[in-house]
Amino acid sequence: MDTAPRTVQANGITQAYRVWGPQDAEPLVLLHARGADGADWAEIAPALAAAPRRVYAPDLRGHGRSDRPGEYAYEIMRDDIHALLGTLGVDRADVVGHSLGGAVAYLLAQHSPGLVRRLVLEDVPAPFPLDPPRPPAERPGGDLPYDWAMILATDEQRNAPDPVWWQHMGRITMPTLLIGGGPSSPIPQDQIAAFAGLLPDARYITVDAGHLVHETRPKEFLAAVEEFLSPADRTPS
């Protein structure tokens, strides 16, 4: 199984990614949460690849081995993933996103709906302004596995998301699975329910695991995702 990090140039930066599964299998893209990287999916990616699927787990800009260029708008991260998939020759894929990666995933689905076959959003809040706003974060000491500027930039957008993100949710017409982490998650679960109610073709389930669903309850997460992405349940390309 080839899981060594690779790098490519896409959208003007070096992007790192990991890959599992046969090269000619249907592609699946896994987008990690803030502060993590593609290795966050290493425990469940082999099971997802066994379908078989070609599973890609990139490091978002400012994370892991990808570049730290200083610009970290959600929309730029979306464009990074779009460019990465183009560079890799992927013209249509299932996409799974957790937290920040889920926001990047739904922006990609809005912007390029033909690229995303099916969408899975793991404990991803609706883009509502935070009230009260998230206070300025204090930088931890020592070396960080991510760019601190990314934390500040994404906090700013999380406090005041572009209203267009919510207005364009109707563009997400592909089948979408929303997985909430339940009452122990810091994400307001009523927001996820509101999110599901707005999307044209959405399913909403709860796995009582907190915010880190795929890490805390991997068997339940995999079962839900596998059922959703199963070949018998796919729409034709």
What can you see in these coordinates?
The protein is 31% helix and 20% strand. It is of the alpha/beta class and 237 residues long. It has one domain: 3-Layer(aba) Sandwich (Rossmann fold). The chain has an eight-stranded mixed beta sheet with strand order 1-2-4-3-5-6-7-8, with helices on both faces. The longest helix has 14 residues, at 74-87. It starts with 5 loop residues before the first strand and ends in an 8-residue tail after the last helix. Residues 233-237 have low confidence and may be disordered.
The secondary structure category is alpha/beta
Name the beta content range.
15-25%
State the CATH superfamily name: Alpha/Beta hydrolase fold, catalytic domain
Record the strand order, biggest sheet.
Answer: 1-2-4-3-5-6-7-8
| CATH topology category name | Rossmann fold
**Count of discrete structural domains:** 1
Q: What's the alpha carbon Rg, rounded to whole Å?
A: 17 Å
Largest sheet: 8 strands, mixed
Number of helices: 8
The second-level CATH architecture is: 3-Layer(aba) Sandwich
Helix content: 25-40%
